[in-house]
Amino acid sequence: VNESLLRELVPAVIGVLVRRGADFAAAEDAVQDALVEAVRGWPDDPPRDPKGWLVTVAWRKFLDVVRAETSRRHREVRVDDEPAPGPGVAVDDTLQLYFLCAHPSLTPASAVALTLRAVGGLTTRQIAQAYLVPEATMAQRISRAKRTVSGVRFHQPGDVGTVLRVLYLVFNEGYSGDVDLAGEAIRLIRELAARTHHEEVAGLLALMLLHHARRPARTGSDGSLVPLAEQDRGRWNTRLIAEGVDVLQAALARDRLGEFQAQAAIAALHADARTAAETDWAQIVEWYDELVRLTDNPVARLNRAVALGEADGPRAGLAALAELDPALPRHTAAAAYLHERAGDPVTAARLYAQAARSAPNLPERDHLTRQAARLNAQLRG
Amino acid sequence: MMAKYLLLKHYRGAPAPVNDTPMDQWTPEEFSAHLRYMRDFAARLEGTGEFVDMRELSPEGTFVRYDGEGRPPVTDGPFAETKDLIAGWTVVDVDTYERALELAAELSAAPGAGGEPIHEWLEVRPFYAEQLMGTE
Questions:
Q1: Which residues of A fall within a CB distance of 8 Å from B49?
Q2: B100 neighbors B94 (Cβ within 8 angstroms)
Q3: What is the pTM of this model?
């Protein structure tokens, strides 16, 4: 069974059931049950029309549940809660499903879980493994999320911004268990980009492609982090870079800049440089200025200070850093880096060790510890 | 975004709780009420999709170290006077640090002597994420 083909069909099949009058939560459960049956039965008896098969089986499963509920409660269950849109109204069910699963009433974690199941077609077990929580916990998270959106009408227009934030979170989770969440986020945003002409959807797709292109070079053979400047650029995926740059240029040409396009532009400038020394830091600083203007995000200011340190020298970088809140994530790591470049290895070693203690994840902690160790060994002579 | 925190319970090593009567001085009803509170707390966490793990440890620990190739491990203890003694932990997966503090406070309100909250001190420790963010 081609699992990815199956999963691609999931949102459309849920859409059909909802259109026929099933509520979203029940439709979603029925489709998951149908998937289990497909995985079991298709290897011996593959259907000619996979989507039609899934719709038929999921609808039967939905009706089974409705009948069981009805007899259990001894009352009628209304199946036609949701009137189907009239003829001629072009509504994209899959797009509506993206909006529903990223509904603003959900917490980020619930929106992520619901999106991966209902739009991505992943099982609860796969999602639980990817986020390192027990399956029962993830099942609860998903059913609470469904309850939260149960009052939301399926066909009301949604907010692209919340969908993008959810997909960005999925992408950033990276790779754990047997599910490649970064790859999954790219698949989902490609689908979204094919259905909307929103510049920021294109911007985020470009950003993901450009970052994903560097993934093979980002970790050493022992799993350690390789910083951008030291990466073997021959291992960057040129096909993904070319696609990312194309998508970005088409988006920028429409002259409606947003934060994801600006971030993608920075990633594209890194991709353009054949060696770290060829990086166009002056232009990168300008893009960070745009990003700060668009978002007023302190993390963007921090990254701008580091870029300024490359463009105008470490003292300029340190001066920019001094204006920011030292409690910002990675502030100490950035200061350590700039102090070493400014010729002060003693301060740099101390700051690297301090930064390691407050690192948010293991690869960064280990990288920062190694930097401190390298400088301390140098200082001992 | 979701992050995991360890809520660490100490036999010794934490500041003294407000309601400091030792467990063996509670009435059986008070003891049952305490256990029920802990079970309900875990069930609530499961219900909210925030539960990862909850375990309790025996206070009887042994120190062990390597003693060279081909030699059996050297053991020592248990030390009755060990300053820091872990009693158990709860691991939660929550949206914010504030939520982790809120849950630790809830755990600290478990009833003890007289059915009153113990006001025990919990230690809250963030987990390192396993991996790098996708966007560096």
A1: 109-110, 113, 137-138, 140-142, 144
A2: yes
A3: 0.88
